[in-house]
Fold this protein.
Amino acid sequence: MMNQFIGLALSPSMAAMAPPHLPRSFMRSSRGNRLGWHTDATEETQYIIAGSGELHIEDGSTYGVGPGSVFAIPTPVKHDLVNVGKETLRAVAFFAAAMFTQNFDNVMMPPKSHILGTPNREA
């Protein structure tokens, strides 16, 4: 299956729950799609809000995830999240540093880049 990025946006309701200095992102993925193999420049903690998925780790491990699942990915472990359910997979990710970069194996559409992250990540 081809890696396809469905959406990454900050959810206002989730943003209100976290301290202002804690970077976070809200992800949604349609049935059969995946976030894409990538590494993060800082530890990532994810909470699954809805849907069913599989967390794939570079060592070949696969973990089923669903509503209420929480997991942490250490830096720089390569990982991917795949929607294996019938409904939209919704998750929120929190990052351990105020500035971070994600490096994806495949170009993300948008922004037509392998690299995603906070605007101030170069600082």
Remarks:
- The CA atoms of residues 18 and 24 lie 8 Å apart.
- Helices lie at 12-17.
- The domain at 8-117 is CATH 2.60.120.10 (Jelly Rolls).
- The first strand starts at residue 8 and ends at 9.
